[in-house]
């Protein structure tokens, strides 16, 4: 442990000791897609009248822009609440993976889940570039996982 922080090697060692397997990028991508469709569907239902009255692609884009704060909050709350309470979102439940704190190996604290959720949403605004980091990280962590000090593992 360097400066009170766990190194990647320490985390891998602890995962092996606990017989936990890192979730694949494939499962994480499918989980993320399920969650994004679910929250998007709920937002469309919540603003059904507005979306049904938008006749062109441009009107839909303008409406989406007007709803930006609501959309950001909805996505943040969804990820924060599910990860803080259950250690997983509905997409993760379906894909049988979960988010764990790198120190306690339990579900993340409310604070860490909130940090992860907010960073994840900013990452989405920038074309998921922070998620690309998972491709080179030995623990398949995206930037929001590192910020929240969590790792995603198989949920047996």
Architecture overview:
- It is a multi-pass membrane protein.
- Pfam families: RDD.
- It comes from Caminibacter mediatlanticus TB-2.
- It is found in: Cell membrane.
- This is RDD family protein.
- The protein is mainly alpha-helical.
- The protein has one domain (8-154).
- 63% of the residues lie in helices and 6% in strands.
- It contains nine helices and two strands; from the N terminus they run H-H-H-H-H-H-E-H-H-H-E.
- It has helices spanning 8-17, 25-46, 48-53, 57-66, 68-86, 90-95, 110-125, 129-132, 143-148; strands at residues 97-101, 150-154.
- The protein has a two-stranded antiparallel sheet with strand order 1-2.
- The longest helix is centred in the N-terminal third of the chain and has 22 residues, at 25-46.
- 26% of the residues are buried.
- The mean pLDDT is 95.
């Amino acid at each position: 442990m360097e400066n009170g922080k766990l190194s990647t090697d320490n985390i891998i060692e602890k995962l092996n000791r606990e017989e936990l397997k890192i979730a694949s990028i494939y499962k994480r991508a499918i989980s993320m897609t399920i969650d994004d469709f679910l929250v998007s569907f709920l937002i469309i239902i919540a603003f059904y009248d507005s979306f049904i009255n938008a006749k062109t692609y441009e009107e839909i884009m303008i409406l989406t822009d007007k709803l930006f704060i609501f959309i950001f909050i909805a996505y943040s709350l969804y990820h924060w609440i599910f990860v803080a309470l259950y250690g997983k979102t509905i997409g993760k439940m379906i894909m049988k993976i979960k988010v764990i704190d790198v120190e306690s190996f339990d579900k993340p604290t409310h604070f860490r889940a909130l940090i992860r959720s907010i960073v994840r949403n900013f990452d989405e605004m920038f074309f998921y570039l922070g998620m690309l980091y998972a491709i080179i990280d030995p623990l398949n962590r995206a930037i929001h996982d590192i910020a929240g000090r969590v790792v995603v593992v198989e949920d047996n």
